[in-house]
Amino acid sequence: MALSEADTRAKLIDPAIHARGWTEDLIKREETAGAIDIDPASGRPRRQTKGRVDYTLRIKVYPDTQAVAVALIEAKAAHLPPDHGLEQAKLYAACKRLNVPFVYATNGHLFVEFDRTTCMTTKARPLAEFPTPSDLRARYEASVGFSLDDEAARPLLAPYARGEATRRYYQDAAIRAVLEKLARCGNTGEPRRALLSLATGAGKTFIAVNLLRRIADAGQLRRALFVCDRDELRSQGLGAFQNAFGNDAAEVSSANPQKNARVLIATYQTLDVDTDDDDANFLRANYPEDYFSHIVIDECHRSAWGKWSEVLTRNPNAVQIGLTATPRQLAITEQTREALADARVNADNLQHFGEPVYEYDMSQGIEDGYLAACEIVKGTVNLDETGISIGDILQRHPTNAITGQPVTREELQELYERTQFEDRIMLPDRVLAMCADLFHHLLDTGGPEQKTIIFCVRDSHSDAVAIQMNNLYAEWCRGEGQKPLSPYAFKCTASVGGSQFVADLRGGSRHHLIATTVDLLSTGVDVPCVRNIVFFKYVRSPISFYQMVGRGTRLDPASGKLMFRVYDYTDATRLFGEEFRAAQREPREPGEPKDGEPVIIQVEGFDVLVSDAGRLVLTQKDGRAMPVTLEEYKEIIAARLVEEAPTLDTFRQRWVTPVERRDLLTHLPEGGASASLIRAIEEMGDYDLYDVLGELGYGMAPRTREERAGAFHYKHRAWLEGLPLETRAALEALVGQFAVGGTDGLENPQVFDVPAVRRAGGLAALRRLGNPADVLTQAKERVFAL
Q: In CATH terms, is domain 372-389+420-629 a member of 3.30.420.40?
């Protein structure tokens, strides 16, 4: 019998590399978070599968020092060619996901090596000739340009203060990438600078804290400054740094410059370097040149690059680290002032810090299960194409919203024919149409009481949108006979002290549900429970766009948040990149049916058609993060699935075995999360993932969990009737758990103790058929054989 991939690892690869000196303390099995799913029985979030597992080989200089990763092994089943997984492994290396110079692929008999420093791939060789730890240490040191015995390399060898249990693989890779560059620059005399680009929610503060802690533990930190944007981020940063440094970390305020602590946490505003009009007086008055040995700039993509850079130029000999959530290659799709300014910021960052030493984008976070999956829903309003005559409007006796006075023909002409489109979308008919369409989407995707951020044009637009969303909600509540939650929609802008409402948006599950804002919530605000990001404003800045989208990327285990949606009414998602445009569906023509019938909304006497411009999913394609249509995403999943399990029979056999099923899911896009995402989008909550994937990959007609459990009784009636009555009852009760919880419900370790199974005879009755574990396997085979 052919060995599976898991057996190949355990029986062939592990013994072979152990024999070459790779003891278990030098092998790190990096495991990603895996898919997050909702338990159908309890409605609570849970990890459906384990994520991708990679062998990382590491070097230890001394027994008590931190191991340094140097290689990745991609293991494949013994019956496959040794280089079968090489391209996949090279992709991981090319993305710097694990930040190692050497990549290996093996089937347990032979191996091939790809050297990232030379871009050369070797011929297949016996696994008995695999490089030893001393071999790879020498080659690693040659590739990075320093010895691990050098003084400059000491931070690399400093252990994590709280152990490695809390860090994620990419966070370790990012920290190593910075420390490697600093060590190399320390030997060459180059400025010690490094830039990190990681998606919002990936844990940049964790990385900053552990970087400085390990540098401090290596005896190389004198004074450090962490600069962030806004008081809330300073408070978050202070808590993180004090967990690592205790009272040796302190915040800087205008009333207290702080000079005693080793790690200072300050905002751009406090240092007087927030805008080009600031004079940096606070910085100059309290901290002389070269006061700091280490500086970390958070949000170094912000548009005031020229002013805050004084923090860096006044400390030219300091180690300088920039953190950003903006991708290195911004999509400058138009020559607007904002886009050109963003390009300048990016160029300044790259000129000062150099190319990012490590990048981890949104789609990688989604694929690993650390960030929420993203669905893009695009909409257009037909009023924007068809227009409305001045006469039609005058017949409805329009009035000025501020004065209440009648609006003249000349004023209307100015509004509708001469203004910029950004002003046009603030007109009452468009506000009502967009809000009505958005509310309709909320009703279709779980109800109106979802945490949502709507980005508006300006303050008055935020007011209008909040009022209309409240009206729609109140009307819906009356129709449903329920008491409205209050406040429901609320304005959250600087003019009303909006930052005071952030805690309510974050923590209030039964109030402050829809936030209408201009840009207050676009940067740095951590609100994991947000499920929808809505663009009612035009966004011309790619940097701002990524910050806005980033408000939805965080997972929220407390509420079971698996995904978030971007509702794009202004083509803001064009800023994901030029290459994304080809993947998006064009808006349907007004009047073209949408799912059979167009949606017509009556607004102030006009029939307003809101057309769906398609649903898109953000995923990794050709090594880049890009939105693809839902259908294309399904095709990607299907192709990967059939590659791993060529036939429906093979798929069924692998699904029944837990280890094989986990292995199968980890090879799908975003792991098991991709199947869960399709189940959520297609509203297949009553179906097991087996049926979701069976339909996608093999055209199998899907059955609900209840239908499968019910079919078990009549499809196998002859077999069941040949069993002792008590055994049959226990077996049927066992299959009944599939109807409740699907595959995971059957494989729950306590399934034999479920009251229904115990009442039917429990384990004693099932043992008449053999080992209960084998009986369970037989039951699954029969359930899925239908």
A: no
pLDDT tens for residues 406-418? 777 777 666 655 4
Q: What is the pLDDT of residue 580?
A: 35
Contact criterion met (CB below 8 Å) for 658 and 630:
no
276, 280, 283, 289 alpha-carbon torsion, rounded to 10°: 90
How far apart, in Å, are the Cα atoms of 593 and each of 588, 597, 602? 8, 5, 17
- For the record, the structure tokens of 602 come out as 């009556």
Encoding tokens for residue 126? 């016996």
- Structure tokens given for 38: 């909702």
CA distance 168 to 189: 31
CB within 8 Å of 603: residues ≥ 6 apart: 429, 432, 433, 436
- Give dist(CA 368, CA 166) in Å, integer: 16
What single DSSP character describes residue 576?
G
In 3D space, the residue among 230, 200, 267 whose CA is nearest the CA of residue 500 turns out to be 230
What architecture is domain 160-360?
A: 3-Layer(aba) Sandwich (3.40)
Residue, of 419 and 334, whose pLDDT is higher: 334
To the nearest 10 degrees (0 to 180), the angle between helices 725-747 and 772-784 is 80
pLDDT tens across 454-464, in order?
999 888 899 99
Judge if 5-144 and 372-389+420-629 fold alike in CATH terms: no
Q: Produce one character per residue of 608-619: b if its CB has 16 or more CB atoms within 10 Å, e if not.
A: bbbbbbbbbbbb
Quick one: how far is CA 549 from the chain centroid? 11
What is residue 76's DSSP assignment?
-
| CA end-to-end span of the chain | 26
Backbone angles phi, psi at 548, to 5 degrees: -65, -50
Give this prediction's pTM: 0.80
Residue 693, judged by CB atoms within 10 A of its CB (0-12, 13-18, 19+), counts as buried
Residue 352's CB is within 10 A of a number of other CB atoms, namely: 18
Residues 30, 47: Cα–Cα separation, whole Å: 17
Instruction: Find residue 568's DSSP bridge partners.
Output: 378, 535
Find how far residue 147's CA is from the centre of its chain.
36
Contact 473, 480 (CB under 8 A): no
